[in-house]
Amino acid sequence: MDFWGHLKTINHHKRLVRKGCFKVGLYRQGLMHDLSKYSPAEFWVGVKYYRGDISPNNLEREDKGYTSAWLHHKGRNKHHLEYWIDYGRKGDPYPVAGMRMPDKYVVEMFIDRVSACKNYQGDAYTDRSALDYYLKGKSRLMMHPEVADLLEQLLTMLAEHGEDYTYDYIRREVLKNK
C-alpha cells in the first residue's frame, strides 16, 4: 500500500492531461479530468494495488478477476470508450456496440492515452508509445468505427509528426478552434 505514491501518480497524470487539454482549448475538460479517481471507490483500490509502473486497475484485475475501481471510473468519465457502449441498433452485428463519441471526448481520450504512457513509461516514452500501446490491444476494443479512425489518425500523427503538430491540428481541424 502506497498512499503518497498513488496520489503523486494521479496528480502527475492529471497535470499532463490538463496541459494537453489546455493546448487544444478544452479548458473545462482539462480541469475536470478524472476527478472520480479521488473518490473512495477508486482511490483506496489504487492505494492498495499501487506499484508505480503499471495501472493499479490491471493489478486488481489479476488479483480479483475484475476491477471495481475501473467499473466505477468508466461510468463517470466520458473520455473512455466504455462509457459509450450501449445496445446496438437494429441490424447491428452485435447486441452491444460502441456509440459515436463527440469529438471533444475522443480528443480527451487521445490526450489521456498519451499522458498515461508518459506517466508510466517515464524516460522511455516516445511520441510512438501511445500508438504502439493502442495497436497491441486494438482488436479487443468495442469502439465506433469513426471514433477508432479518429483516435488512430491522431495517434499516428503524433508518432510521425510530434506533439506540437498534432495538438495544433486537433485545435484547428478537429475542434475547429482557429
Quick structural gist:
Helices cover 62% and strands 3% of the residues. The chain has helices at 3-24, 27-32, 40-49, 56-64, 68-74, 103-121, 129-137, 145-161, 163-174; strands spanning 85-87, 96-98.
Structural description of this entry:
- The structure is a single chain.
- This protein is 62% helix and 3% strand.
- With 178 residues, it is mainly α.
- Strands 1-2 form a two-stranded antiparallel ribbon.
- The mean pLDDT is 95.
Mean pLDDT, to the nearest integer, reads 95
Q: List unreliable stretches of 5+ residues.
A: none
Structural shape: globular
Question: What gyration radius follows from the Cα positions, in whole Å?
Answer: 16 Å
List keywords for this structure.
178 residues, two-stranded antiparallel sheet, 9 helices, mainly alpha
